[in-house]
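Here is a typical protein record:
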Amino acid sequence: MRKKLTLEKARLLLLPSILTAVLGFLLSSGSGNHPAQAFSSGPPAGYTGAPREVPEACAECHVPPDAGTGHISITAPQTYVPGQTYPITVTHTNMDPTRRRWGFELTVLDSSDERAGNLQNTDVLTQVLNNQGPGGTRQYIEHTSAGTFVGQQGGASWTFNWTAPPTDIGRVTFYAAGNQANNDGNTSGDYIYLTFVASAPASTTPDIAISAVPSSRGVTPGGAAQFTITVTPLAGFTGAVSLSASGLPTGVTANFNPLTVNITDATSKTSTLTLTSTGGTAIGNYPINVTGTAGGITENTQVTLQVISPSSIDLVLTKSASPNPAQVGVSLSYRIVVTNNGPAQAT
């Protein structure tokens, strides 16, 4: 929320937990009565980076995305036939020898961000959570305690089944978050990764989807902000996608690197959008449309550029996840982190 600070507004965002805290707790090795064991068999529902999940903003602001040298990927069908069952695989890769424990959580949503299809575990390495997450209606699949592969190096993978919806509901998206942990018994030093892939009904023609991360950034007049634009191919699309921005306020310019992304297979491609303001850019929030064009295909997404006063501050307070369950007679420890994203100094 924004509050008065001297004569300017300051924004204070209070976020109860972050992906690193939650996924870190769930993979900490622990011993004795260490509360980290509470999540060792899987995290709570709602930690995949999907829309309307609280950790989405936390990871964006406070956990460097794709920290470390690892990678997480989802293998899923680019197109689906209603009612058909498909194997889905989530894979971690990281040659860093300090990565010694692994975990993930995944959900599948339609274009309205509601549950799409049905997930089924096929072995003891994964488990399904039904009717949980935002709204209490989503379905998740995640690792079990046996599926953390304690001590394993190089990576890990989990395979399970997904049955497509019984009717054509349009595009669906698989969202996953994963932890590549160091297995040192606490939440520090663990790497959190997010990814997603889309699947379209087999009856559709080739198409693309455009998304932006983060959805909003703040700058002072004369400053610049960067966004990652992702182009995801659907239904077998291949080709060149040209990117453009519209709705720019006075004094703001847009630059894409690269300006055109070439889709050659089912892999999503990214471009960095830099929005640069001038000293004369008026303070305010500006929605900017980002468009991807390929032949007769045009898709859009939107980002928000927040131009703020140089005397404003942006404070973010985070704490580590709560032990669950708490244990009688055992002290609870929390780590509180206050981050000032500026631009002014705060005391």
Q: What stands out?
A: The first strand starts at residue 2 and ends at 5.
